[in-house]
Structures are given as structure tokens and as C-alpha cells.
Amino acid sequence: MTRIELTVDGSSVSDEVEPRLLLVQYLRERLGKTGTVIGCDTSNCGACTVHLDGRSVKSCNVLAVQASGREVTTIEGLAATHTGGADGELHPVQEAFRECHGLQCGFCTPGMIMQAVDLLNENPSPTEEDVRLGMEGNICRCTGYHNIVKSVLHAAGGAR
Ligand code: FES
Ligand code: FES
């Protein structure tokens, strides 16, 4: 077992984990952060996307031990990064997905939103092509891509 110390959604965590444990398993099974989901076993779908030190990563592609000493933000802590934790407030990108119907079954949505936030942090005024390229690592099995792209562009146009 290996000791890890990290920050998850603003809380300090100290734990002992097996070196082979994936970050997504750690978040879901040990911390109960089931908002981060597993959609594949090939690192292709992006449903498990979280932020590691502010940049998006596929958490099925990162070991929990690699997150030690670092800051993880999941979909469950995203709103607080913007609102400071005000109850019930959504992050503007979450709000844009809600307004533009950027989800159908919602399974891909946590990963889509985490990826979109990273994309917009890097490029606050993306073109539609920038959005499509920036989101290409995230798959929507409901094929709701049109409204997902619309949501990201809407978020870009609003106050963030
Ligand atoms: Fe991580 Fe699919 S579960 S990419
Ligand atoms: Fe169903 Fe994307 S909304 S997988």
C-alpha cells in the first residue's frame, strides 16, 4: 500500500491505496464521488474526465498515486470553484448545458462539462470548430453533439 495526500473538491484527503488503483476507482469507490462515471475500458469515452491541478484528464488513465500532492476537481466540486460553494448554484458551463439541452441520458455529461470548462479556460472565445476539436475526446452515446457544442458556445458567450 502507498500513502497518498491530495485535495479533492476542496477537501484534504489522506489515504493508503494500492499502487495499481485508478484515480476514477478511488474517487468513486473510496470517496463516493459517483458523479464521475466510467463509460469504457479503453480510455476513449471521456466520461471519467476530472481536473488535475486545473487541467482535464481522463481519470481512468491516471493512477490514484499520481494524484498525490495534487488538486483534483470533480463534477461534484465544480460549481464551488465558481460560486465559492453557494448552495444550489450551478457553474456557468453547467447552466449553459441546462439551458441549451446539452444532455439526453446525461451519462456523458459530467465528463463533457469538465472538458468544456478546461477548453474554455484555455480558449475563452472558441469557434465552433475549436469546440468540436476540443471536445473530440468525449463521446456521447446519445449522439447529442449538436446541443453539446451549442452549450459550450453559449457558455463562452456568457459571463464565466
Ligand atoms: Fe475513462 Fe472511458 S471511462 S475514458
Ligand atoms: Fe447520453 Fe451523452 S447524453 S451519452
Description:
The protein folds into two domains: 2-78, Ubiquitin-like (UB roll) (Roll); 84-155, [2Fe-2S]-binding domain (DNA polymerase, domain 1, Orthogonal Bundle). Strands 2-1-5-3-4 form a five-stranded mixed beta sheet. The protein is 37% helix and 16% strand. With 160 residues, the protein is α+β, with helices and mostly antiparallel strands. A hairpin with a 2-residue loop joins strand 3 (49-52) and strand 4 (55-58). The chain has six helices and five strands, in the order E-E-H-E-E-E-H-H-H-H-H. One FE2/S2 (inorganic) cluster binds next to loops.
As for the CATH topology of the largest domain, it is Ubiquitin-like (UB roll)
Low-pLDDT segments, ≥5 res:
none
Quaternary state of the chains: single chain
Q: Give me the strand/helix succession.
A: EEHEEEHHHHH
Overall pLDDT, averaged? 95
| Termini Cα gap | 41 Å
Number of domains: 2
Name the bound molecules. Answer: FE2/S2 (inorganic) cluster
What is the top-level CATH class of the largest domain?
Alpha Beta
The class by helix and strand makeup works out as alpha+beta
The CATH architecture of the largest domain can be given as Roll
Overall number of strands: 5
Overall geometry: globular
